[in-house]
Amino acid sequence: MQNKEDIKNLIDNIKGKSVAVIGIGVNNIPLIRFLVSKRASVTAFDKKSAKDLGVYYNDLKNIGVKFSLGDKYLAKLNQKIIFKSPGIPFSTPEILTAMVNGALVTSETEVFMALCPAAIIGVTGSDGKTTTATLCAKMLEQSGVKTWLGGNIGKPLIGELGKITPKDKVVLELSSFQLQNCRVSPDVAVITNISPNHLDYHKDMDEYINAKKNIFLHQDESGLLVINEDNDITVGFKREKNCRIFSMKNSVEHGCYIKDGIIHFKDVNGDFEIIDVNDILLPGVHNIENYMAAIAAVSDFASIKAMKEVAQSFKGVEHRLEFIKEARGVKIYNDSIATSPTRTMAGLKSFDKKVILIAGGYDKHIPFEQFGKDILDYVKVLHLTGDTTEKIEKCVRNAGGDLPIKKYGNLAEATKAAFDEAGSGDIVLFSPACASFDKFRNFEERGNYFKRVVEELH
Fold first, then answer.
1. Chain-centre distance of CA 232, in angstroms?
2. pTM for this one?
3. Which of 110, 342, 352, 395 has the CA that lies 20 to 30 A from 214?
């Protein structure tokens, strides 16, 4: 299967075919319903038990779905058409065996992009993709365009295909998990940046980068690519045709740049002033980059007026440098989305003083050596918790300096201690630089837990 037409033919002829859907989660439940509506014979595979699946199990069973559940749930994987959840690696032995035996492995993301009647703006990157995707959607909506926002941001859109029209626009946040082996690219492909991430999932950095590149590799001649010229990796993706660039450092011929504190958009139609960076409500240099990426992506469809209005009013996405409260003169922020060192550093650089930082979590096998050096300039006290505590501490100690480092058994203890030692005027920032899976299901659950702990502080 090589292109959109192949996928369309697959779905058109799927009636009566035996198909496997691996993973019964947020992404795949709408997919399962979609496949059942196409009269496919669906078997759903998951590690969870029927009891753990709860209402999902009963609902899907009632529409004719069969199940393979439990620890050895993939033992009887023999279907020739497999829809894989993004979180399950291609390196899973049973999936590799199925592929060797001729099975076609695809996904909700690939099928949706092939079947969607509207133009799709896809956004990926190591950091900033959720904010950038949200900004794209808000700029389009503010311009009066019917817009659908989904993908990795938490809402699969395959169940909405019957409602989406060719006049609409779709914005998809796309992770490396969703893009790996994807053979369809969106009409507009945005890459915010690339830095080491998810090396617990991908076998190495090259595989991670190649997964990201699928967002544009399968575009046709009309496809637009938007890249960050200031990033050492994405700058290498520049191409001669249909490429827009955003840069904080340099002027550009096609795309976004900054001159005298004003974001400009430049293309064949002229050079347009968009907004003063001081008028952007979201704090941080990284959010200026996110705005530039969004402007370059939607400028063919959204008005400058809408871009300005969004910049001046958008307060941000939950768990992203989210201000929680001020108590005893101490300001507390939740940045649970920061699952990598680069993301935490972007947050630290948003403040004009050193902060009390709470960090640590699940180990994605990302190097912390540079992080250890960098935080010496931005952190006054470091509170660590989670699986990476010792790893981060070692990197900070090796970097020199006398930064106070304190270690705790859980996030609640770290949060209370950080607040107790803070004085009026201090900033307490929870920005883990790590994933959440050592203690929580995802960064949202972790962020919500942090906020509950904070609300009890006085």
1. 20
2. 0.82
3. 342
